[in-house]
Design a protein that fits this description.
InterPro entries: Alkaline_phosphatase_core_sf (IPR017850), GAG_Ulvan_Degrading_Sulfatases (IPR052701), Sulfatase_CS (IPR024607), Sulfatase_N (IPR000917)
Keywords: Hydrolase
Pfam families: Sulfatase
Shape: globular
Oligomer: single chain
Number of strands: 14
CATH class of the largest domain: Alpha Beta
Family: Belongs to the sulfatase family.
Protein name: Sulfatase
CATH architecture of the largest domain: 3-Layer(aba) Sandwich
Largest sheet: 8 strands, mixed
Length: 497
């Protein structure tokens, strides 16, 4: 009798659909976790997820800009496939369903706290609630420039009010480590800036190190809330049956990182755990794109993946309990950018498409005559001159060229015009400072990567492959911004030919 009851219990547990806790930090590059060996940043809860589950070494956002990155996650589509959804301060058209709405339709309790799909319009003709019900009522006293939303407190409210026998999906979107920072907080928190490794695309001095320390401080704030959420899951007896995904939307908010298609803009931290379904400690090298989250979550939830989703589920990789390269077909990802901030005359974008394959990053800049970080003589309503770079001490140092001899180099690699083609060996050149696209030895490699990139873009109906640029004419829903700067659709293309 006891044996039969045990078998029935096991069968019931197997059939139970998993909960999903999706945790996304705002502006964090892949390397900046303690498990990855970065000094002076402490992320014990991210590390816990990685050690009890899988650490992905090659996860890439689809676009290094928060709203388009989040739209690609929710829809499972590339940014060139979702119209205005591919832009910051755009909107997600109704015809592109989101995985969270599909979870809700299939019986999941859903909710989110912190930063959801934004900044974007949530009014007609766009989706009003593409993510889930917002839960941000619980506030706390927070240090200057730290968001007052009590993320873990709001998760507790969700856990208390949910229907206990239903599976749930919850999105925790930390506003940190988005700028602004309270300058010097990292040092005040005890960080030894002499131990901080400055990426090679930034000047190595105490000002930059202190700025990075402040950034690390905000990553730790996000991680602490994650820890309290894990405790809540344990208390509710739900941790074993919850898929916990921890990542970030785009790279660090520093010059030549966020808002670019270099690795410090698109290469993301990613750790996933799922109770005893994963043996823990796996270190996976498969390339994971953010468009792969939607089909993976839907498959795990037992929901048919709808047509139109471009991403590919990596549930097989997750459940393989193997390290290294698990799925040989996962040897590449594609990233892109159109408009981040409105920082060029008449809202013109800086269109980029890339293929990241093996050790190589191949970049195609479709409009190399434009300024990649924004026009030097156009004041963006969002960030000022060179508006694709977030305001910061690091930006001020580079753009104001206080140390003229040193900063001229960083000024040029940050805002200078770029060739139509860039090629980098990321293993040998982790900061992408040495473009080897025009070396004779790489001629055939460039041709091969371009063909592979363009084949994928054509297959997924990228308007750029048809000589079209609809993004130049899409509205920009920044508070107080006047749309009078935009030319009528059709006129802009003639003007810029």
């Amino acid at each position: 009798m006891h044996s039969c009851q045990t078998k029935k219990t096991v069968k019931k547990e197997v059939e139970k659909r998993p909960n999903i806790l999706f945790c996304i930090v705002d502006d964090q590059s892949f390397i900046h976790t303690s498990i990855n060996g970065t000094a002076e940043v402490n992320t014990p809860n991210f590390d816990r997820i990685a050690k009890s589950g899988v650490l992905f070494n090659n996860a890439y956002c689809n676009a290094s800009s928060c709203a388009p990155s989040r739209a690609s996650i929710l829809t499972g589509r590339n940014i060139w496939e979702i119209e205005e959804g591919g832009l910051l301060f755009g909107g997600l058209p109704k015809q592109f369903s989101t995985f969270s709405s599909l979870l809700k339709k299939s019986g999941y309790e859903t909710g989110y706290t912190g930063k959801g799909y934004m900044p974007a319009s949530h009014k007609e003709p766009y989706q009003k609630q593409p993510l889930a019900e917002e839960l941000n009522a619980v506030k706390l006293n927070a240090p200057k420039y730290i968001n007052r939303k009590d993320y873990s407190g709001n998760f507790n409210v969700f856990m208390e009010k949910r229907v206990k026998d239903k599976p749930f999906f919850f999105w925790y979107g930390s506003h940190e480590a988005h700028r602004a920072y309270n300058s010097g907080d990292g040092i005040k928190a005890g960080k030894d800036i002499s131990k901080i490794k400055v990426p090679g695309f930034l000047p190595d001095n105490d000002l930059i190190r202190s700025d990075i320390a402040d950034y690390y401080n905000e990553i730790e704030w996000s991680d602490a809330h994650l820890g309290r959420m894990l405790q809540a899951l344990e208390h509710a007896g739900e941790l074993e049956n919850t898929i916990v995904i921890v990542t970030a939307d785009n790279g660090m908010p520093f010059p030549r990182a966020k808002g670019t298609c270099y690795d410090y803009g698109t290469h993301m931290p990613l750790a996933v755990c799922w109770g005893n379904k994963l043996k823990g400690g796996n270190n996976v090298n498969d390339f994971i794109s953010f468009i792969d989250f939607a089909p993976t979550i839907l498959e795990a939830a037992g929901i048919t993946i709808p047509k139109g989703i471009t991403g590919k589920s990596f549930l097989n990789v997750l459940l393989s309990n193997k390290s290294g390269l698990v799925d040989k077909s996962r040897d590449k990802v594609f990233t892109a950018l159109e408009r981040h901030a409105y920082c060029r005359q008449e809202g013109l974008t800086y269109p980029i498409r890339t293929i990241r394959k093996g050790d190589w990053l191949y970049i195609m800049n479709f409009e190399p005559d434009r300024w990649p970080a924004g026009d030097p003589d156009f004041y963006s309503p969002h960030q000022g001159f060179y508006g694709d770079i977030d305001k910061s001490p690091s930006r001020t140092y580079i753009l104001d060229k206080e140390d003229k001899t040193a900063a001229d180099y960083y000024f040029n690699i940050t805002v200078g015009k770029r060739p139509d083609v860039e090629l980098y060996n990321v293993k040998e050149d982790p900061y992408q400072l040495n473009n080897v696209a025009f070396k004779e030895i790489n001629k055939s490699l460039c041709k091969e990567l371009k063909n592979e990139l363009f084949t994928y873009l054509s297959k997924t109906n990228d308007p750029r492959m048809m000589g079209k640029a609809p993004w130049d004419n899409y509205p920009y829903y920044f508070d107080g911004f006047s749309q009078k700067h935009l030319l009528p659709i059709g006129k802009r293309d003639n003007k810029n030919k």
